[in-house]
Amino acid sequence: MEYAFEALLDYLRQSHGFDFTTYKRPSLMRRVQNRMQALSIESYSDYLDYIKEDPEEFTPLFNTIEINFTGFFRDPEAWNYIAKAIIPRIIASKSESEPIRVWSAGCASGEETYTLAILLAEALGVEQYKARVQIYATDVDTEALNQSRQGSYLSSQVVGVPPTLLERYFEQIAERYIFDKDLRRSIIFCRHNLIQDAPMSKIDLLVCRNVLIYFNTEAQTKTLARFHFSLKDSGFLFLGMSEMLPIYTNFFNPLNLRQRVFTKIPRSHVNQRLLNSALLRRH
Ligand SMILES: C[S@@+](CC[C@H](N)C(=O)[O-])C[C@H]1O[C@@H](n2cnc3c(N)ncnc32)[C@H](O)[C@@H]1O
Predict the structure, then answer these.
(1) Contact between 103 and 90 (Cβ < 8 Å)
(2) pTM of the prediction?
(3) What pLDDT, on the 0 to 100 scale, is given for residue 266?
């Protein structure tokens, strides 16, 4: 263990409330080193001194660490809640022939999207899944999106997938794990900028995790208003663990605040003026 690095993580947790201690060390260290190189700083302890002196350094560091950071079953407790409480509710609210529409917004390299696909296939069975599920996987970053489309991961990237699910849903070819091609057909990958592009519609479950945190309050409000439009009245919104957005209360009610799952406030109850002004600001 690199003590100076752990000391830096402790400091970030205590002073900025961001807990990176659960992140995998090699990629986390690489990202912090990128930031250190940009500042010509050579040791973690010097960097810790630097960030103590200049708290504003937290923002570029955070962006370097988080920008495409993702993982299968990231925050397992929250995904467990989605599997046990939300997906069964969505299925129970529909007839066996009705489609299930899911949007993974800001999907990065696809781990979140395939986590969703696995949980839906587990709940529905593969045949029902293939007949009914449609997943939109969108991101503004075309490079990340290309990786998503491939559905091909190194063993270090699939550590979060429970072994039985890894065996069931991935084919191992040489050192790579390839997500089941048949199930992948239900996923539509497309470039989409949450701030500019028209939102998807009639969504049952909208997963947008660790994306809104990069937006300013105006962009967050606009995006949440669009998410409100995107979701069916019975739909669910699932945000990231560090996303406590006070403005969500204009559009959504918390269903499980700890796991960041929300239900839509019916359109007639939303402050109409707020909704209109947020939606109009997209032009
Ligand atoms: C930290 S990653 C989160 C990945 C995944 N949702 C997760 O929680 O594991 C943030 C992703 O948001 C994407 N993103 C940032 N701004 C965006 C925007 N305006 N529209 C769509 N995606 C955006 C980035 O390209 C990146 O892939």
Answers:
(1) no
(2) 0.86
(3) 83
